[in-house]
Design goal:
Layout (H helix, E strand, L loop, with lengths): L6 H55 L4 H11 L4 H11 L5 H34 L1
Helix pairs in contact: 1-2, 2-3, 2-4, 3-4
Length: about 130
């Protein structure tokens, strides 16, 4: 069966799907946030700032290449989607194929290292916040 669905129809139904989820979950989330929004907001800012500083600071100090930096950044945020995004961005950089492939191969390796550093760092931070 060869059924073609117009792309605009796919977009409309995806938007309806997202609307239904937000319509159901959104009000409940905002009601819960009213009770303790400030500590969660501060924790979010601390995590974002720490991950950014941890990955880029380490990369600048230790003179890491682009792929290593991207892997640490993706691992620090524990976002595997950044691996694909970084690989696409590296492919668009000017340079030799061998060098670009080395950068891209560094991303998943340092993604794991970034996750380990993130977990270690924030286990220490959580212990500090508990006391």
């Amino acid at each position: 069966m060869d059924i073609t669905v117009p792309s605009i129809l796919k977009v409309i139904f995806f938007d309806l799907f997202l609307f239904a989820i937000v319509f159901e979950v959104g009000p409940k989330s905002f009601q819960r946030l009213k009770k303790n929004a400030f500590p969660q907001s501060i924790l979010t800012l601390v995590i974002c700032f720490s991950c950014l500083c941890m990955s880029f600071g380490r990369s600048k100090v230790l003179n890491y290449d682009t792929g290593t930096t991207a892997g640490l950044f993706a691992g620090a945020f524990s976002e595997s989607i950044l691996i694909g995004t970084a690989a696409k961005a590296i492919n668009k950089l000017p340079g030799e194929y061998i060098e670009m492939s080395r950068f891209i191969n560094n991303i998943p390796v340092f993604y794991q290292i970034g996750i380990i550093l993130f977990v270690f760092f924030f286990n220490i931070k959580i212990e500090v916040f508990k006391n």
